[in-house]
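go over this chain:
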Amino acid sequence: MQNFSALFFAALLFLTGCSRPELPLQHTIPKSCTIYDMRQAACIDEAELLRRLSPFRVVFAGDHHAEPAMHAVLAALIEKLGKSGRNVLLANEWFTPGDDALLSQYVSGAFDGNFTDAVGWKKKAGYPFASYAPVYAAVKDTGGRLYGVNMEKDFQKALSENNLTNAAGEERRFYASLDLNLSAHRKMFAPFFSRCHARQTGEDDEACLERMYRVQVAWDSYMAQQSAALAAAQLHTPKDLLIVFAGAMHLAYGIGINARFARRSREPFVTILPVPEGTANADVGEADYLLFYPAKPAEEGDE
């Protein structure tokens, strides 16, 4: 009987030791957190975050587009980074490399026209410029630089319509080289691509959904390509810091822009994602750091 019991418990330990945990694994975040280090599984303060960022020259920072409070928190962080001696280069998805000359004039104070009109803000973003202004002001006030990493509208349109007839050879090669086999990324976006939008003539659902996903991959890949080029060209000293500022879904779980950047650059990086205050849980591997911002007050009648 003793031998049977020993074998039973040995088998139980073997089975439980080799079984996979139920997914997803999550962190439970203390209510008092303003910054959460996901690798250490602990709350830290802003001064500690600055120390932990000091060895890195590339930071991916997620954006919640419709959250002015989030932009204010990021602006404050950029101010602190600049005052700590970092040379901040902000690469933003709302702009393209074709905007770089205008962006340089803007942050240097040499541009005296209407910046939002000149850069075509309403067509590029669709969100109030006033919400983002503190971020750009922080870059400007600390002597930083501002860059664009997104695709030009004509190229975006050609990708969306799957019509690259008039695209340059380099653009066609880029499109043909896209890696559509990052399974975790495809799975994350599957709920968003469950229904075909703007089906083209003669296109069935499967072809439409595949085209939509290819555009998403192209979007991430292009911003990664441009960010890697900036890192190679602009990061000269340990004080230089490239912050790639893009929608959080482009960066979550390290499988979007950041994963494709890592294929093009050996520069180490960290990812910071924004979360509203009161967030109680976060998936393991979602980011390196979570940056909390004040949640919107509940509207009257909300439960």
About this structure: The two ends are 59 Å apart (CA to CA). The chain has twelve helices and ten strands.
